[in-house]
Amino acid sequence: MTDKLTVSVLGTGIMGAAMARNIARAGHVVRAWNRTRAKAEPLASDGAQVVDSPAEAVRGADVVLTMLYDGPAVLQVMREAAPGLRPGTVWAQSTTVGIDSVGELAGFAREHGLAFYDAPVLGTREPAEAGQLTVLAAGPAEGRDTITPVFDAVGARTMWLGEDGAEAGATRLKLVANSWILAVTAAGGEVLALAGALGVDPANFFDLVGGGPLDMGYLRAKAELILHDKLTPASFALATAEKDARLIVRAGETNGVRLDVAAATAERMRRAAGQGHADEDMAAAYFASFDDSPTS
């Protein structure tokens, strides 16, 4: 087994809680903090220390892992943590943020002498709970002996994408991957909505594409959630998916690329969230196909 590390996990929502639990199960000391403490409390039964402030969580930590909502939230929490930070601490920034935010966060790390790793993860609730995420990581080689045991605890694979986290190599790939995931999710919802409107049994559609190049396990999984009313608990919340879609659109605009599908996906998710589905699985974008959202 690796040497025991002290790991501070800031943010214990769907993903952060699962990651904290697996880090603790790997034998490391975990200090968990969440703005709403009640969301972190269940981790105490897994051996985590639940604390009241970011500064308390990071004091004396070998690794700080952030899994929050967006870039501004991460920066705010790290500023709150600053009194407890010490130079040389490794920071794995796993929140999905915009490319511009990565540079800002890396700047904060430099100011405080932290070893910064741009480290978003690919996966939703189920792989997070199983410790089977894919970690996309960019950061200095000299700190990898410290951070690798943490990545191994939360993921089945770590994909290294450079030695300078400030360049956002990992975040760039995460946004590309999410653009595909969100497009499939939105299109799958439209397929089911159109099938219903035309009186087509969705099973016939899946029989038609089954086993061929148009078939996809992910599409089937999201359709299952819609067809059998399994949108809660969310594997990935609709409101968070909308945020990611807008980050993707912004990344395209900043780099001279028009992303019509991503923009439409963000709008569908906004409408569905406005109908009351914000906390459901992102497959609930399906409801944006209706002027009056059916009860989910």
Layout of strands and helices, then pairs:
Blueprint: E1 6-10, H1 14-25, E2 29-33, H2 37-40, E3 49-50, H3 54-58, E4 63-66, H4 71-81, E5 90-93, H5 99-111, E6 115-118, E7 121-122, H6 125-129, E8 133-137, H7 144-154, E9 155-160, H8 169-197, H9 202-209, H10 217-227, H11 238-254, H12 260-277
What does this entry show, briefly?
Helix content is 49%, strand content 12%. With 296 residues, the chain is α/β, with parallel strands linked by helices. A 6-stranded parallel sheet has the order 3-2-1-4-5-6, with helices on both faces. The protein has a 3-stranded mixed sheet with strand order 7-8-9.
Write up this protein.
With 296 residues, the chain is of the alpha/beta class. It contains twelve helices and nine strands. The strands form two sheets. It has a six-stranded parallel sheet, sandwiched between helices. Strands 7-8-9 form a three-stranded mixed sheet. Strand 1, helix 1 and strand 2 form a beta-alpha-beta unit.
Defining traits:
alpha/beta, globular, 3-stranded mixed sheet, 296 residues, 9 strands, 6-stranded parallel sheet
How much is the radius of gyration in Å?
Answer: 20 Å
Structural class: alpha/beta
What's the pLDDT, averaged over the residues?
96
Total helical elements: 12
Helix proportion: 40-55%
Distance between the ends: 46 Å
Q: What oligomeric assembly is this protein in?
A: single chain
Beta-strand content estimate = 5-15%
Instruction: Show unreliable segments.
Output: none
Shape assignment = globular
Sequence of strands across the biggest β-sheet: 3-2-1-4-5-6
Strand element count:
9
The helix-strand sequence is: EHEHEHEHEHEEHEHEHHHHH
Largest sheet: 6 strands, parallel
